[in-house]
Specification:
alpha+beta, L,D-transpeptidase catalytic domain-like, 8-stranded mixed sheet, two-stranded antiparallel ribbon, globular
Amino acid sequence: MKGGVKAKHGGQTVLFLLLLAAALFADDFRAEQNRYPRVRAARAAAQPPLEALFREAGLSYPPWEIFLRAFKMEGEMELWARNGVGGPFVLVKTYPICASSGTVGPKRREGDLQVPEGFYRVSGFNPTSRFHLSLRVDYPNASDRILGDRRRPGGDIFIHGSCVTIGCVPMRDGPIEEVYLAAVDARDAGQARIPVHIFPCRLDGDWLKLERESWRRPGLMDFWRNLKEGFDIFEKTRKLPRISICQTGEYVFSGK
């Protein structure tokens, strides 16, 4: 009995220490970001309206968790957030994507000018970007490495300021300040993985309009139908599906 009590309290102690370490690391991250002049300027200019957006959506700020979703044909980037773990995401704001390169369809090789399509995460923060502020997207993911050029799939994909792009997702400087701060503050609150979903278009209603874009590229409609599975889960539940990738490069979803 005593051994069981000791083990129980020992487990709680370990959990507490892990949570404390995560909190300390998160605090260091925000402080590190605030050392940069552009982040400090964004705090002064963009944080008050950003906090107002969260209040209007019934959300706390700083955010517990955020999610970014982009649509290439519509030229839109959505910022979603939720309070706590397990609840539904709420749309905070839809931003215009102010430039584009390539066409609909996934990125498959270096130099093809394509914006990726698929399920990604923020993998880095650049407060001194040539394009004001930028968030790195973790392209190529495991699916891209299987389905794309395995030697030269390309990389350096960002969500960034300034209206120029070669395969990235550009926003104007004001919008990227809001998105960047929300990502920094979610990361600071402990969200280690910020999802970024990029679609050719909104895959609801008359999404089969993509057929005219796919006839020259065999397999493209199958790829988009696979993306639609993940899109539909979020549309139905307002929760993110758990995503894995099989040996053929296809996304596999759970959480329906």
